[in-house]
Amino acid sequence: MTKMFSKVLLTAVTAAVMLSACSKVPDQSKYIPKTAGVVLSINSKQITNKLVTNGLTMEKMFSALQDQDTSNPAMKAWKDAENSGVDLQNNFFVSVVFNNSQQSYVTLTGGLKDAGKFEAYLKKNLPNFTMKKKDDFQYVWEADQDAVIGWTKETVIYIRGVDANKLKNGGLPGGMPGGIPGGGFDEDEDDSSAVDSAVATQVRFQTPDAEATWVAEADHLFHLKKDESAADITAFHDLLKNNADLSVYVNPEPMYASQGAAIPANLKKLLEGSYYTGGVNFEKGKVVMEGVSYAGKDLSDIYKKYGKTEADVKLLEQYPSDNILGFMVYGFDFRMLGDIVKATGLDGMANISLRMYSGNQNLTLDDILNAFNGQMFFAASDLNVRKAPSTIVTGDSVTRTDLKWVFAMKVGDKAAFDKVISTPALQTFVTKKGDKYVLADMMQQPGMPALSIDDKLIAVANDQPTLDAYLGGKGKVGGLDNSFVSKIKGNPMGAYINFEKIAAAIPVNDIPANGQAIAGQVKDLLKDATAVTHPFDGKSQRSEVVLNFKKDENSLVQLVNLGTNVARIVHEEKKADTSVVY
Q1: DSSP-assigned letters across all residues of 244-274
Q2: What is the pTM of this model?
C-alpha cells in the first residue's frame, strides 16, 4: 500500500503546481533545525501562479495525457490530495538533518489548512491508523516504515530516520517519495518500488525504540527555539526572503560534525560559517539560477589574502572560429588551495606524496601552485557529425564526430614551473624541442591531441592545425553574444554553451525512428546557457546561470508542455504497439 503521507506531500509537491504568492519567509521554515545539512524548498504558490496565469491546470495536464476520467488513478490521487487538508498553496520543505549517525533523519514539512480533513484522510488510507496525542500535537506512528507523522492545526511534519554514514552513498530511505507515488498510481503497489530496495535497506535506520525516538524529535521540531532553527541563520533566512520558485540550502558543518573523528578538527574549523544557497526562478523565455557561497572567518581571510582574480577574456578572443559551441574562462589563484591545505594540517603529507610519485625530492606543493597563475580557458567549436566508411567492415559505414577544441592555461612563476616540468615523472610524456615542450615521441599516436608548452602558456588542442591557429594569435573568435562576453570582464568565471548549434549538428537520420518525435520536441526547446561568477565581496561569492529558451513564453510552462507532449507520444506509441499487453 502506498504510504499516504508521502503520497499527499509528493502530489502536493509535484502538483504544487496549483494555486498564488507571498514575500515573507514561510512560517514552516521555523520548524527546520540548525542541524539540517540540506534543505529543498518548493514555493508552490508561486509555481502555481505561473502555470495558471498561462492557462495550465492539473485537469488540462491530465487530459493532455489521457481521457479526463475521475476514476483514473492519477486524477483520483490529485483529487484526494486536494481534499486531504494539506495546504497546497503553502511552501513545502524537504530536509536532511544530521544529528549523529544514529539519529539523523529526513523530514518533510508542509502547511495544513484543515487538520480535521487531514486526520480523516489518514484514517481512510492507513490500514493500522491509530492517532495519539503528545502535548499540543497529534501523531501517527507507521511501524512498518519506522516513521512518524505529526501535525498541529497549521503544520504537518513527517520524520524518518536514516543512517548518516550510509545516506551519503545515495538514495532516499525506503518509502520516501522518489517519484510519482506508487510508480504508476497503482493503489496496491508497495512504495519500495519507488526506491531501489537495496538502497532502501542500506539507508534505512532503526533505533532500539524507534517510536519514542522520532516522536520526541517531532516534539522537538514543533517547539524549536529561535536560536535552534535554521531560520536564525542569515544565509537561510536571506534565501527564503528572495522568494524563489525552488530554493536549496547546504550547511556542511552538521554533515561533518555527524562524522565525529573521521573529519580533521582543522577542516571543521575552516568550514565554520560556510554555507551554500541557490534559487531557481522560471521566467519568461528563461530559467534563472542564482547561487551564493558564504565563507566563514578563516576561509574569508584566505580569499582576502589573494585579492581579486579576473578571468583573462583574451584567451577566448584569439580562438580561431566563429562557430563556437561552448567555452569557459576562469581565473583562480591556486595559492589559495595551498593555504587551505595548510590550514587543515595536511601540507606535510601532500609534500611527501609529491616527492614520492614525482621522482623529484625537492618538489613541494608550493612549487606546483606557484607554477601556474590560475588563468584557464577551454572552448569547443565546429561540431560535425558525419557518416564515414568503416575501417573494419568493407562497404559498411560508421558515425564519426569531428570537434575542434582548445584548452589553455597560463604559466606563473618561471622558476617554479621549470622545477615542475623537469620532474622525472613528466619526462615520459613530454620532451623539450627548442624553447618549447611537446608530446614525447612515444605519445604521438593517431588520435592523440596536440600539445605545446613554453614558459608562458600550456596549450592542448584536438589537432596540430587548430593548435597552431590558436597560438598564432591571428584568429579571432566570432558568432558570440558580445553583451555577454562583456559581462565576464572583471569577474573570475564566465561560461557559455549553445544548445541550438549542438542540436543542429546532429543529423535527424542518426536518431532512431521511434525517438525522432521526442527529439524534435527537445530540439525546439533550448537556445543556450550562460554562467558568470562574481568576485568574493568579503563574505560571499555570487554566481548566476541563465538557461535561455527559444520561445518567449514562461519556461516552466514550456517544460510542463514538453513533459506532457513526450508522455502523450510514448502513450500513443505503446497503444500502437500490438505486442504490448495492457
Answers
A1: -SEEEEE-HHHHHHTTGGGS-HHHHHHTTT-
A2: 0.83
